[in-house]
Amino acid sequence: PPDVEELGRSTWTFLHSMAAYYPENPTAMEQIETAQFIRTFSKLYPCWSCAEDFRKFIAKPENAPRVSSREALSRWICGAHNEVNRKLGKQEFNCNLWKKRWLENDEC
Ligand code: FAD
């Protein structure tokens, strides 16, 4: 099986970067495809227990992927990552810093 920590760091880099470079004003089709991508991702992520918890998280109506804008998606991914941080006993990240960390590439 893959190294769950290394896989996690790489995947979060990908997901936060994807959100940071997502359109500020996405089309209806981009929104549908992005929400679908996140759902498909949750079925293929190769840490099965991680993927299962992530599916349970996004299945709650209040946690549905927010794809209406770059800001909304970046904050949504930040919240999803914080959910995992809480579960693992890691420090929560201040989501007001998403742009500084993931668009301006500052370590925070
Ligand atoms: P990471 O948590 O990988 O974070 C990398 C960097 O992202 C941090 O250094 C920080 O700069 C930044 N960051 C941290 N939090 C946020 C945030 N909320 N918003 C924006 N930026 C942030 N591991 C398990 O053991 N069990 C699991 O169930 C599990 N589920 C996972 C589910 C998913 C969808 C993913 C992608 C990963 C999961 N992982 C899980 C892996 C875990 O989240 C970490 O990636 C791994 O433990 C390595 O942690 P880390 O301390 O190096 O930093």
From TrEMBL:
Its main location: mitochondrion. Its cofactor is FAD. GO terms for cellular component: mitochondrial intermembrane space. One of its GO terms (molecular function) is flavin-dependent sulfhydryl oxidase activity. Its EC number is 1.8.3.2. Coiled coil: none annotated. Keywords: Disulfide bond, FAD, Flavoprotein, Mitochondrion, Oxidoreductase. Transmembrane segments: none annotated. GO terms for biological process: cellular response to oxidative stress; intracellular iron ion homeostasis; mitochondrial disulfide relay system. It catalyses: 2 R'C(R)SH + O2 = R'C(R)S-S(R)CR' + H2O2. It is found in: Mitochondrion intermembrane space. This is Sulfhydryl oxidase. The lineage of its organism: Eukaryota, Fungi, Dikarya, Ascomycota, Saccharomycotina. The chain holds residues 67 to 174 of 174 of the full protein.
